[in-house]
């Protein structure tokens, strides 16, 4: 079957089929992505004319200080098969979770009038609700619909998924961690999606590849960012990460490889050798120098080597770990190469598995930790499987697993790609800018050839409405509902551990997170959490509450893979119940005590008075016959 598919693809290469994006759809635990998906060119497919790279290079030959768009990444490879970021489109902004894909040249989201779109993380884009949306009219630079009125796009992938729709233009903003002000940009409004694109949780694709309607190319053409961007994927059991649109200052020890844009539409590097445990594999360096070179693609989950290179790599790994037991993979449909006995702690993997070096043609090399070529076995605790596979096509494809916890800079201006090992989850936190979103421009021009739109929209997707956190009351506590889908239905989540992760992500103390309600059905759990103040007398400050709510609203929490996938359903802010004084809290008891005291006092006084009176009467009584002093008679007056 693989040979037939390869022949099919090989045939189409020679009849005018263009190679485009690597698969960006989710790759589940029991699936493998097909390699180098092809875009079948047709009169209806979107093939924009390539931008004049030489002209752009001359315009940017002298780097200038330009703002960057700092954006967080979410999800992880094992649970989702991809990483996403949050993009806001329209006025007012509509939020979308988009797969970051360096192999795609178009950004697209489901449209409200989509005839065939799946149920995704966020509501569909509603053009009619955006005051700044414009559809792109048919013109010589784009394929058009049958009525020759609107520009359209069409993307088809080798695993038989596809996306098609119309092209539109609107204000795009990048969140409150971005220095870059919102910009007008062209994107796809989906009318039909099939395959994995239909079933995936993410809303759509954010195209970062080389192409005129790539989001990077559009921003560069406008002159608002430098011709560069960076990605940093979080590590095993953590996920998340960071993305920067625009240039950054590279770390001193970042290693680079040349990337030739004229050779391939993909981002490629010049891989020369692979070393396992310090020993180079006995391979001809040309094996990594296929038609497109060694392709680096963020939308592919795993890595794929030509047959001979994969065999050598596999044998070297097995030879280096004689103490580990070879076991079957989690899915019998695939002949995964897995090992047990390595333990659960990712940090300890380097003591069990060898280091791998990828050496570039310039002699520089990047170190691959075990997490860069292994994925966790989903059915056997402490077991791991190779995340590098044989490619039936004689080409080398490096997916996201290879660059976990690695800052990758795509320096398109200088034609090179840099690699720097770091903790990408921590990098994401360091990139956070706690300031308000950048103001929207007073006038945002459209792409040349289209109508200019004068607008000053309110673009603050990360600022809550004033009625959410009104200053009229102090916040008592915050509740939010979460659903979790565990990878293994036999394992119950550790809620105490999960609460600690929530506290860490929300940047609060562990004691503030309380489990309120939990229910389950199979491997799915519904959980209600409460966030309470450290001191109940003082409540939660508006600043802290705003930070918590922004994390919740943007699904801005990252959990280990063992908790599976999660979804935040809703959150609610409860006002603080004003604390009463001791006297007000105990006024009834005090009043009762006072009354009782008065009654007792009166009773005691009454009893004492009665007793004293009786005693006096007893003293004044004289028995009969007792001699008494003779009293002087009063004189009688006449």
UniProtKB/TrEMBL annotation:
Lineage: Eukaryota, Viridiplantae, Streptophyta, Embryophyta, Tracheophyta
Organism of provenance: Acer negundo (Box elder)
Stated name of the protein: Peptidase A1 domain-containing protein
GO BP term, example: proteolysis
Origin superkingdom: Eukaryota
TM regions (residue ranges): 587-611
PANTHER family the UniProt entry points to: ASPARTYL PROTEASES, EUKARYOTIC ASPARTYL PROTEASE FAMILY PROTEIN
Domain Peptidase A1: from-to ranges: 83-420
Active site location: 101, 297
């Amino acid at each position: 079957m693989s040979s037939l598919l390869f022949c099919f693809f090989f045939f189409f290469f020679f009849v005018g089929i263009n190679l485009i994006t690597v698969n960006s759809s989710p790759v589940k635990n029991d699936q493998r992505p097909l390699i180098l998906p092809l875009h079948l060119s047709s009169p209806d497919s979107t093939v924009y004319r390539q931008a004049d790279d030489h002209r752009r290079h001359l315009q940017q030959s002298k780097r200038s200080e330009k703002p960057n768009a700092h954006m967080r990444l979410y999800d992880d490879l094992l649970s989702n098969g991809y990483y996403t970021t949050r993009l806001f489109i329209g006025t007012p902004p509509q939020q979308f979770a988009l797969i970051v894909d360096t192999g795609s040249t178009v950004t697209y989201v489901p449209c409200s009038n989509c005839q065939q779109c799946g149920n995704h993380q966020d509501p569909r884009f509603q053009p009619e609700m955006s005051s700044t949306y414009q559809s792109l009219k048919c013109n010589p630079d784009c394929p058009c619909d049958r009525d020759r009125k609107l520009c359209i796009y069409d993307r088809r992938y080798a695993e038989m998924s596809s996306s098609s729709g119309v092209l539109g233009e609107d204000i795009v903003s990048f969140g409150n961690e971005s220095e870059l002000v919102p910009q007008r940009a062209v994107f796809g409004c989906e009318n039909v999606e099939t395959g994995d694109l239909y079933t995936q949780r993410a809303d759509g694709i954010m195209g970062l590849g080389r192409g005129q309607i790539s989001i990077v190319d559009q921003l560069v053409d406008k002159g608002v960012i430098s011709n560069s961007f960076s990605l940093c994927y979080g590590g095993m059991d953590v996920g998340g990460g960071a993305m920067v649109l625009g240039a950054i200052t590279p770390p001193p020890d970042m290693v680079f490889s040349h990337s030739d844009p004229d050779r391939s539409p993909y981002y490629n590097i010049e891989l020369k050798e692979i070393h396992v445990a310090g020993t180079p594999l006995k391979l001809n360096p040309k094996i990594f120098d296929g038609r497109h070179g060694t392709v680096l693609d963020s939308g592919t989950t795993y890595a794929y080597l030509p047959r001979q290179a994969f065999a050598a790599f596999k044998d070297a790994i097995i030879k280096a770990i004689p103490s580990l037991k070879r076991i079957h993979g989690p899915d019998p449909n695939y002949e995964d190469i897995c090992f047990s006995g390595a333990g659960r702690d990712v940090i300890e993997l380097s003591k069990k598995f060898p280091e791998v070096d990828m050496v570039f043609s310039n002699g520089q090399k990047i170190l691959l930790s075990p997490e860069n070529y292994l994925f966790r076995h989903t059915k056997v605790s402490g077991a791991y499987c190779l995340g590098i596979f044989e490619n039936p096509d004689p080409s080398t494809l490096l997916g996201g697993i290879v660059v976990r916890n690695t800052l990758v800079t795509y320096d398109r201006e200088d034609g090179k790609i840099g690699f720097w090992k770091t903790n990408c989850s921590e990098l994401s936190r360091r990139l956070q800018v706690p300031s308000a979103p950048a103001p929207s421009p007073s006038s945002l021009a459209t792409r040349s050839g289209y109508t200019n739109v004068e607008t000053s929209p309110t673009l603050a997707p990360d600022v809550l409405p004033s009625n959410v956190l009104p200053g009229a009351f102090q916040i008592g506590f915050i509740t939010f509902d979460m659903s979790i889908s565990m990878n293994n239905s036999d394992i119950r989540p550790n809620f105490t551990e999960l609460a600690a992760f929530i506290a860490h992500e929300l940047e609060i103390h562990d004691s503030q997170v309380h489990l309120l309600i939990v229910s389950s059905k199979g491997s799915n759990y519904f959980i209600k959490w409460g966030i309470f103040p450290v001191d109940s007398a003082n409540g939660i400050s508006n600043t802290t509450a705003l930070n918590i709510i922004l994390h919740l609203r943007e699904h801005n929490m990252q959990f280990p893979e063992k908790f599976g996938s999660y979804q935040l359903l809703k959150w609610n802010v409860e006002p603080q119940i004003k604390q009463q004084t001791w006297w007000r809290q105990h006024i009834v008891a005090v009043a009762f005590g006072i009354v009782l005291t008065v009654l007792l006092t009166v009773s005691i006084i009454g009893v004492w008075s009665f007793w004293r009176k009786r005693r006096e009467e007893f003293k004044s009584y004289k028995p009969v016959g007792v001699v008494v002093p003779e009293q002087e008679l009063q004189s009688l007056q006449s």
